[in-house]
C-alpha cells in the first residue's frame, strides 16, 4: 500500500514539475521576444526653428468707445410739435433735432417786453425828475430795480424758449429716435443717442508689470471679429495714473481713425501694443508647442544609435503672430522640431519624419474661399 502511494506521489510531482517547467520556459521565451522587439516609430511632421526679427507686442482685449457720446434729453417739459431728424442720420453741431410747443412762452415774452418798455420809460422820467429834486432817491432806485426785473424776465423767457428747441451739441450720428410728434416730454426724457465715432477710442488694460514698457504715442494694432481680414492702426492717447484695486491692471486708451465708421462703440476688440525696436526670436508653428500645468515644451528630433528619437525641451514662449509663435528661451536656430504628432511621444520615443504634407503657417492667415 505504501509503495503504491509513494509511486503515485512521485508521478504527480513529476507531472506538475513538467508543467511548471514548460510554463517557465514559455515565460522566458516571451520575455526574450519582448526584449528583442523594437517599438514602431511614431510618424510626425517637423519644422526647422528659424530666427526672425519681430516687433514685440503686448496683447489685450478691450472695448471700443465713442469719441463723444451722449443720450440727448429734454431739459424742460413740453409737447413735441416737430422732429427734425431721421434715425441713424448724420447731424451737424447746431442742427435742430426736436421743437416743442412755445405758444405760451412766446405770449409771455411779448408781455415781458411790454413791461420792460414801460419800466424803461419810467426810469427815464425818474432820472429827469431826480435832476431837479422832484422825486427821492428811493423813487429812482425803485424805477431802476423794476427795469432790471423786467429785463431778467425777458432773458429767462428766452432761455426757456431756447430749451424748447433741442439742437445737436456736436457733429455725429444720431441713434434710433425714442419720441413721436405730439408726445409730452417731461424733464430728463430721452430723445435719442448721439455718437461721434471718427476718431474712436479703444479702452483696454495691461498688467502692472508692463508699466515700464508703456508710454503715450506707442502704436497699437486693433482687430475685431466683424472684420477679421482688416487691421486698424492707432496710438495710445492716455494712460490712467491709477492701478485698479481689484485686478492690479493699468488702464489705457488708444485713438483710432474710423473714416468709414465701420467700428461701433461697444464692440470688443483685440489690441496689440507695438513696442519700439525689433527683437530676434526663434519662430515655430503654433502647433509645435505642448502646453501643460508644469510648463510649455516642444519635442526636438535627436539621434540615438543613428536613429531619430524625441527629446523633450522646456521653452519660454512669446507673442503669437497668426499661425506662428515666438520662442524666447530653450531652443536654438536650425533645430528640427516636431509640429504634428506630439500626443504619441514620450522622451526617447522613436520617430519617423514625414514632411510630404505639411500645413501652411503664416503670420497673417486668411480664410480659404470655397
Automatic annotation (TrEMBL):
Entry's Gene Ontology molecular function annotations: efflux transmembrane transporter activity
Keyword presence, Coiled coil: yes
SUPFAM superfamilies named in the record: HlyD-like secretion proteins
UniProt subcellular location: Cell envelope
Keyword Iron: no
InterPro entries per UniProt: Beta-barrel_RND_2, MdtA-like_BSH, MdtA-like_C, RND_pump_MFP
Occurrences of domain CusB-like beta-barrel (ranges): 202-273
First-listed, main subcellular location of the protein, grouped into a coarse class: other
The Multidrug resistance protein MdtA-like barrel-sandwich hybrid domain, residue ranges: 70-192
UniProt keyword terms in alphabetical order: Coiled coil, Transport
Domain (Multidrug resistance protein MdtA-like C-terminal permuted SH3): residue spans on this chain: 281-341
One cellular component (GO) term of this entry: efflux pump complex
Ranges in coiled-coil conformation: 109-146
Top-level lineage group: Bacteria
NCBIfam families in alphabetical order: RND_mfp
Family: Belongs to the membrane fusion protein (MFP) (TC 8.A.1) family.
Name of this chain's protein: Efflux RND transporter periplasmic adaptor subunit
